[in-house]
Design brief:
The complex is a heterodimer. By secondary structure, chain A is α+β, with helices and mostly antiparallel strands. Chain A has 8 helices and 11 strands. In chain A, the strands form 3 sheets. In chain A, strands 2-9-8-4-6 form a 5-stranded mixed sheet, with no helix packed on it. Chain A has a 4-stranded antiparallel sheet with strand order 1-3-7-5, with no helix packed on it. Chain A has a two-stranded antiparallel ribbon with strand order 10-11. In chain A, strand 8 and strand 9 form a beta hairpin. In chain A, helix 1 crosses helix 4. Chain A is globular. Chain B is mainly alpha-helical. The longest helix of chain B has 19 residues. Chain B is flat, with a radius of gyration of 26 Å. Classes of the chains: A alpha+beta, B mainly alpha. At the A-B interface, helix 1, helix 5 and helix 7 of A face helix 1, helix 3, helix 5, helix 7 and helix 9 of B.
Chain lengths: 432, 272
């Protein structure tokens, strides 16, 4: 007896990647013999005990169980079910999680290895996860000759108003990070973008084997001292520039929450949540903690036109994005037509600079625009890359496409999740 | 953990925080932000003020530059204040101000750094640090000074920094090859020459790397450096260079490990 397994979010190479957001699966009996009866089966986890875990349900829900009993019709008609990564049980490698369909006497009828692929706190990565991320990043840069230069050229002075100072700051950067992550996954599909939790100590992130530190003596310059053979040892942008960075703070602690004058600096996650439950209030996080996180260092990362030269930029912004995701979940802000969720819904543009910030505006560079007030230089990225497991956001994403990133409202997810931000339906939203 | 339990846990934690800290809703002062920036600019430009306070003002203002056009009206005064801070008596503040000015491609900063390195003006930073900042702003001008310093200095960190900058100098290839293959050279200087040569001429780098990898007497760390670079070389290299890398690795005895990877990389196959 054989069964066919078909899980959504399986890429063309047959690898299945799950997040916390449930996806549909189907099972059916194949080559059922004459006189075959319907077959009761149990869906269960088949991976290793310390690996990623999945949960099942008969409907799209946020309350799946570790097992699910279904009956496969003898006719071969498909049975649908829903499967998701179990919150707080992500994978570390491909295949440490698996889905199995077994009979009541424990006969495995079908199995699919998979990965619960989740963005994690950088200091909690295993050394293998860290190294895979760095290897992919190093290859994306390819000693300055690879596609990374396009990412660096996306975050520059001429594109400043596309990304900063207005409501679109969070969604534009969400798209930017996802573009980078998908490019990394083209190199190694098991990689996700880690985040720098900048309100907590993260000495492991600045260890030599990760993002490194400059020489102890500031007089020797701020070029990062990588060990020989490190994947970022030959990192280059703009032709020849290496990674330069020097923290102003003691990296065994977190950057200060307030500056000398009592201004908010790198405020905590709790303080960021306390900015308010309306988007217009929450967006003040662009001032703090976002800005002071950048300026906790000397080096290119402390200026808009140069910040993306440093790979730390992407881990810093992954945390900014995680904070937005956490805020969205906490306040249930997924309905993009509600100004509590996004505060620049429509109407005419107030000033040319806010083009690209309204809900239905497309975003540069993925829209390919060279018409002022958009940057007139050739767009360094775009169209937006497709994903093997997610159909969204399409080649020319709009601000709107970045808001419900998990597809809480049923539109399908963007294919990423954070380790501490669950998927949760709006009350009464379970769909059968 | 079930999501509903997690939500309860998060809300409990936020409630505890709120009780301890109070809501930050009241701390936001949109109307007075301009005043705060003005005050910070004045402090940064005040040579008699405490250096630590000026440094803090600099970071506060620099964070404001991330707000886009909202800060633009203050930018000219901010840059003027940075120029004052760049010649402060405090070494740390000088470096911070110059670092930001260089990121802004500021002519005053470049001129001061060049004068310090050429000895025609007071050095504001130690030479290696000055050279590093200058290179970030202007590769051409930095490489000329780097060549001069390389010929004159015995300070190895400075020489390593100088070698790094030769990556932008098309005439530096023979010099970089010589340094990279010189086993008596300071290790960090050799590493810097590997990075610079790889930028300047990937084919020459691959050739030289092959010589190093097949030399049983060369150092393991230098081999790790060139080996790592070869394995991450990008598809945009011309075909001739790709072939050269392949031949190079084959000669070094490391072909089994890397040639397949390189071929996959160049053919654009994912997950290789």
């Amino acid at each position: 007896m054989h069964i066919d397994i078909d899980l959504q979010s399986t890429d063309p190479a047959g690898r299945t990647f799950l997040t916390w957001a449930p996806v549909q699966g189907t099972l059916r009996l194949r080559e059922a013999g004459t006189g075959q009866s319907d077959v009761p089966v149990i869906l269960r986890n088949g991976g290793i005990s310390s690996g990623g875990r999945v949960v099942f349900d008969t409907k799209r829900s946020d309350d799946g169980a570790e097992t699910l009993n279904v009956v496969l019709p003898a006719s071969g008609a498909p049975v649908t079910f829903w499967i998701a990564g179990e919150f707080q049980k992500p994978s570390s490698v491909y295949g440490d999680a698996a889905f199995e369909a077994v009979t009541s006497d424990n006969n495995v009828l079908g199995r699919q290895d998979l990965m619960v692929r989740i963005r994690k706190n950088a200091v909690k990565l295993t050394s293998a996860e860290r190294d895979r991320f760095l290897q992919a990043l190093g290859r994306l840069n390819a000693a300055g000759l690879g596609p990374f230069q396009g990412f660096r050229d996306t975050h520059v002075q001429t594109s400043r108003s596309e990304a900063h100072g207005y409501a679109g700051f969070p969604p534009w950067h969400r798209a930017y990070l996802l573009d980078l992550e998908r490019s990394l996954q083209d190199i190694d599909p098991t990689v996700t973008l880690p985040y720098w939790r900048f309100d907590e100590p993260a000495p492991e992130l600045f260890a030599p084997e990760f993002l490194g530190m400059p020489p102890a003596d500031p007089g020797m310059g701020d070029v990062i001292d990588f060990p020989h053979g490190h994947p970022l040892e030959f990192w280059k942008t703009d032709g020849a520039d290496p990674i330069e960075r020097r923290p102003f703070y003691d990296i065994s602690a977190a950057p200060p929450q307030q500056d000398e004058d009592g201004n908010d600096a790198v405020i905590t996650q709790n303080a960021t949540m306390a900015l308010g439950d309306q988007y217009a209030a929450f967006r003040r996080m662009e001032r703090a903690p976002h800005g002071p996180a950048h300026t906790s260092f000397l080096g290119p990362i402390n200026s808009v036109p140069t910040a993306a030269k440093d790979p730390l930029f992407f881990l810093l912004h992954a945390n900014v994005d995680r904070l937005w995701a956490f805020w969205q979940w906490r306040n249930r802000r997924y309905n993009s037509s509600d100004d509590a969720t996004y505060s620049l819904l429509g109407g005419s543009h107030r000033v040319p600079d806010d083009i690209g910030h309204k809900l239905n505006d497309t975003m540069w560079p993925w829209n390919g625009s060279t018409t002022p007030p958009r940057p007139t230089t050739a767009p360094p990225r775009g169209p937006f890359p497709a994903s093997g497991i997610a159909s969204r956001p399409g080649g020319t994403p709009k601000i709107r496409d970045m808001i419900d990133y998990q597809g809480v409202n049923g539109s399908g997810s963007l294919g990423f999740d954070y380790d501490d931000v669950p998927f949760e339906l709006q009350p009464g939203d379970a769909v059968s | 953990m079930k999501v509903k339990d997690y939500r309860r846990q998060v809300e409990d934690e936020l409630a505890r925080h709120s009780a301890n800290e109070g809501s930050r809703m009241t701390t936001f002062r949109e109307t007075s932000e301009g005043d705060a920036w003005r005050k910070a600019i004045d402090l940064l430009a005040d040579s008699s003020a405490d250096a630590k306070a000026r440094q803090s003002a600099l970071q506060h203002l620099q964070a404001a530059t991330f707000l886009g056009a909202q800060f633009d009206a203050f930018r000219p005064d901010y840059i003027a204040a940075l120029r004052v801070a760049a010649i402060s008596d405090d070494a740390s503040l000088r470096k911070s101000a110059l670092d930001v000015l260089v990121n802004f491609k500021d002519d005053f900063a470049r001129q001061k750094l060049e004068e310090g390195l050429r000895g025609t003006g007071e050095p504001l930073l130690p030479p290696a640090a000055a050279l590093g900042l200058l290179a970030r702003d202007d590769h051409g001008s930095a490489s000329r000074i780097a060549r001069d310093l390389l010929g004159q200095s015995t300070d190895n960190p400075l020489r390593a920094q100088a070698v790094r900058l030769l990556a932008a100098d098309p005439t530096a290839k023979p010099l970089l090859v010589r340094i990279l293959t010189d086993k008596d050279e300071f290790r960090e200087v050799r590493r810097a020459s590997a990075v610079a040569l790889q930028s300047l001429d990937p084919a020459a780098f691959a050739q030289t790397a092959g010589d190093i990898l097949s030399d049983s007497g060369d150092f393991r760390d230098i081999k790790a450096t060139v080996e790592g670079a070869l394995s991450r070389t990008a598809p945009p290299l011309p075909n001739q260079t790709n072939l050269l890398i392949e031949q190079t690795l084959a000669r070094s005895g490391l072909a089994q490990r890397f040639v397949g990877m390189l071929l996959n990389l160049f053919s654009g196959r994912p997950g290789s």
